[in-house]
Design a protein that fits this description.
Number of strands: 19
Strand content: 25-35%
Radius of gyration: 23 Å
Number of helices: 11
Length: about 400
Amino acid sequence: MRTVALILVLPFLVFSNGVKEALYKTVERYLQRGNYIGALEILHFLGDYKNSQSLYKKVAQFFTPPPAGFFKEEPLIRVKIAQGFKTVTLTCGGVEKNFEPLEGTEFTLKEGCFIRFDRKASIKLPPNTELRIFRYGGQPLAVALLPLETYLKGVLVGEVYLRWPLEVLKAQAVASRTYALFNLYKARKKNLPYDVDATTDYQVFTTFALDHPKVVRAVEETRGEVLTYKGGIIYAMFHSNSGGCTANFGEITGLKIPYLTSVRENCNMATLKWSHWNKNLSKERIKNFLKGVLGLNISQVEDIEIKRGTCGRGLLITLKTDGGSVTLPLSIYFRLEMRIPSDWFFVIGKSGSSFVLAGKGFGHGLGMSQWGAFCLANRGWDYKKILKFYYKGANIKRIYR
């Protein structure tokens, strides 16, 4: 009888050890991309596996707020705009110049100049932008140096709709300035070669419409303003749509951050983009993920169970297969790996080939909801009231003029 019991339990033990090791290796990949919350979520899930607890404490230090008094004037921010390219094309006045990325290449872009990496679309950076090209981690990087307030104009264009109320853009400007300065401070302390990149790994930065009147006004009228908590610059996370209730950082990671707790939005969410969505999640895709990424030997995915936290948002997901069950962090890890819009979803049906999901919101759900801010601004809220609603206990402070 003991032998039979061991055979029945064995798949679950193998799953546990194999999954933990795969997740442990994922932490390094997340840290390289700057996904500290994803790394912290996994380490919190792993508990005492290997040195997860000591690594958890080390990663948690990233979220310690930088002193607001550190920044006395507007800094230059280093924005990674390209990596892994083989050729660079510089176009000025209709004349093209092609060259290979060489170590230590630096030049200043003049008015009317465009730059292109490989065959991708040309980029028009603001005049007098210094561009540095160098190798890091075995591949070429292109990093643009921009005044922070100029950079913020590109972030507003990339992150919010310009037709939205001005108060939304101003709220986004303050949140993005805070987020940028937080990352700038951390990058300089670690001697990293750039502060942020231009993608959703940090915040989207684009280079067109920087002179749009609403963008210019939102940035200029909030110049130097950041969110602080007990004298430190906060980690001002934001996302597209909470679905009506934001996530709690502490529930996801085990690290309590007072200004990133859950809030309920009193909005008519039905009218907002991504408030409700449906998605077919392929069983084959889950199976390939479990086999290819986690190394599990299965042939069929049978069911899904979700452990929920605040508002019903998912925290952990259990996948039941013909070889046993495997539980994974859902809020960041599984959501990103499966490209699910948010962690707030329910399985409303299943077929032989897929699970039918019905969900709310888009993104990680932490901090300010951009569509929620849009709703609140339409109710007459100004940007300061919006920010203080989402970042509980935070203050707005001008740290330079």
